[in-house]
Write a structure and sequence with these properties.
Pathway: Metabolic intermediate biosynthesis; chorismate biosynthesis; chorismate from D-erythrose 4-phosphate and phosphoenolpyruvate: step 2/7
Strand content: 15-25%
Distance between the termini: 32 Å
Cofactor: Co(2+); Zn(2+); NAD(+)
CATH architecture of the largest domain: Up-down Bundle
Function: Catalyzes the conversion of 3-deoxy-D-arabino-heptulosonate 7-phosphate (DAHP) to dehydroquinate (DHQ).
Radius of gyration: 20 Å
Enzyme class: lyase
Strand order of the largest sheet: 1-2-9-6-5-3-4
Protein name: 3-dehydroquinate synthase
């Protein structure tokens, strides 16, 4: 098992444990850490059907007697205040009047991770939690770093908090149940790390794409661990996104989040970030700070993976409206992470609105086949 440490203050430092076929050891690992006595598992309906019973049995064998399970319908559209309220009601009932030492265990992809983390952050001003990511995207992105939240009024992660987990426990064998669309979506975030810091990741994906899409763990494990190490270093330097260092992780996310919301979450997060990255590259190209050759290299790789680089089923006005709600904005001006070269970026603000509109408009299409083809790969 590979251990990657995130070295924050003593009370917030934690480890990422990456292994294969190791889920059966999580109960004893948590028992030894002494971070909770009552287990509250948060998952969605899809992942819960696959792994919840097994996980409960693992905790029972480790000596945990007080265990509850909370499931909610899967999908980004359910990462909302209604689901949050239902989970909090169930958690409060589980706690009763006993003031238990509860550990929340978030099992699943990005939605259970974000939702469960926000529940843990806000219940009684914060309880301990553990992440068990089951998708590539949750592994390399939202499973670590402590940013948790839910969508509100269709605005991505409008309600949120910083709340670090006590442990991120990775069993790569759980990825074996992913469909092709989910694999591709996770790779968008890996491409992001390649552009912002480590170009070797782009080579890794390009050279081993067939094996990665076939869920060959020998091909997947290196790109996941590289991504973890990059994000761990960045989070250590700028935990709460106040120094401008962590901002680099938002490459592709400014327009990406707006597209995700404007499309009513018909695009997954990773698919939206793919679109956001090519738009960021286009803006950088229009500003004369990023070469067409490198932009084409990134776009070609995204297309080869099977990720969208065009925007369908969205209106320009809706995308621009959601851009005004972007959390990274300062004094009403959007901030963009723009590439200067592959492996090096710069934060730019005060990009003319007409330039943003021009770039987005060029990426828009009326083709109905984009979402249809994405949907086919989710079966």
């Amino acid at each position: 098992m590979t251990k990657i440490s995130i070295n924050l203050d003593k009370n917030r430092a934690y480890d990422i444990l990456v292994g294969r076929d190791n889920l059966d050891t999580i109960g004893t690992s948590i028992k030894a850490m002494n971070i909770g006595e009552s287990i509250f598992i948060i998952t969605d309906s899809k992942v819960g059907a696959l792994y919840a019973k097994r996980l409960i049995d693992v905790f029972k064998r480790a000596g945990f007697q007080d265990i509850d399970l909370a499931k909610f319908p899967n999908g980004e559209k359910n990462k909302n205040i209604t689901t949050y309220s239902e989970l909090m009601t169930k958690l409060a009932k589980f706690d009763g009047s006993l003031n238990k030492n509860i550990l929340a265990v978030n099992l699943g992809g990005g939605v259970p991770g974000d939702m469960g983390g926000f529940v843990a952050a806000t219940f009684k001003r914060g309880i301990n939690y553990v992440q068990i990511p089951t998708t590539i995207l949750a592994n390399v992105d939202c499973g670590i770093g402590g940013k948790v939240g839910i969508d509100f009024n269709n605005i991505k992660n409008l309600l949120g908090a910083f709340h670090q987990p006590k442990l991120v426990f990775v069993d790569l064998s759980l990825l074996k149940t992913l469909n092709l669309r989910e694999i591709r979506a996770g790779l968008a975030e890996v491409v992001k790390y390649g552009v912002i810091e480590d170009p070797s990741l782009l080579l890794d994906i390009g050279n081993h794409l067939k094996d990665i899409l076939a869920l060959n763990l020998d091909a997947i494990e290196p790109i996941v661990t590289k991504s973890y190490r990059i994000k761990a270093r960045i989070v250590e330097q700028d935990e709460k996104d106040t120094k401008g260092i962590r901002m680099v992780l938002n490459y592709g996310h400014t327009i990406g989040h707006a597209v995700e919301s404007a499309a009513g979450f018909k695009y997954s997060h990773g698919e939206s970030i793919s679109i956001g990255m090519v738009c960021a590259n286009d803006i950088a190209g229009e500003l004369g700070i990023f070469s067409r050759q490198e932009a084409e290299r990134i776009e070609t790789l995204l297309s080869k993976i099977g990720l969208p680089v065009k925007i369908a089923n969205c209106k320009l006005a809706d995308i621009m409206r959601f851009l005004t709600h972007d959390k990274k904005s300062v004094n009403g001006a959007n901030r963009f992470v723009l590439p200067l070269q592959i492996g090096k970026t710069e934060i730019k603000s005060a990009i003319p609105q007409e330039l943003i509109k021009k770039v987005i408009k060029k990426r828009m299409t009326n083709s109905p086949s984009i979402l249809a083809n994405l949907s086919k790969s989710s079966k």
